[in-house]
Amino acid sequence: MTQSTSTNRPVAIPALLTDKVAIVTGASRGLGAQIAQQMATAGAIVCVNYLNSKEAAETVVADIMAAGGQAFVYQADVTKLEQVKAMAAEVISRHGRIDIVVNNALPHYQFDPSADNTSIETVQWAHFSQQIDGIVKGAVNTVQAVLPQMKAQQMGKIINISTNLVYNPVVTYYDYTTAKSALLGLTRNLASELGPHGIRVNLLAGGLLKTTDASSLTTEEVFDYIATTTPLRQATLSCRLC
Known about the structure:
Blueprint: E1 2-4, E2 10-12, E3 21-24, H1 30-41, E4 45-50, H2 54-66, E5 70-75, H3 81-95, E6 100-103, H4 125-153, E7 156-163, H5 174-194, E8 199-206, H6 220-228
Parallel strand pairs: 3-4, 3-6, 4-5, 6-7, 7-8
Antiparallel strand pairs: 1-2
Helix pairs in contact: 1-2, 3-4, 4-5
């Protein structure tokens, strides 16, 4: 299968993940949906996790299957350990294994440069708590849920999704960026502990996407500035992720 680049030239995506079972949390829309679709293109059997957006998740699965891929819908609130354990058990029952987990889920968030959470004078601890609970607790719960299976397999891959705002806070989203920063520490600790079990853990820190619901309030001025900081001088569109 192919994916067009920014110059509209088709590029083949190798089937490097053939028959690998991958759970992508928060995959009903935005970045998570794109990750799910690209993993399916690479041959993975993708488990599309969602919290509330069942119809959107089913659309992602339908798109994957229409393109010749394999995908299934799984509902779970990643902040609830028992729900994530139940999801993992269902995945194992259906597919027999879990090879990859992408911790992408986060609480509802609007990247609004004018919001209270962009200033230390007005951001509230409740903002931090919500993001830490959804992003960090969600990742911890998901890892704990899949770890017994990955250890039994003596292999697995865990990918935590962060943001380059951690390194370059173009807009000071204090709550979101702080929670995403914590994923770096979590990733390093997980990699150190789980490496001997054949489980690799990595973190990906991408840029703000221009075409998602979460970024709908981001001004063109912000995207223009982001573009000046990239080698291609472009803000990232979801269709250009791969």
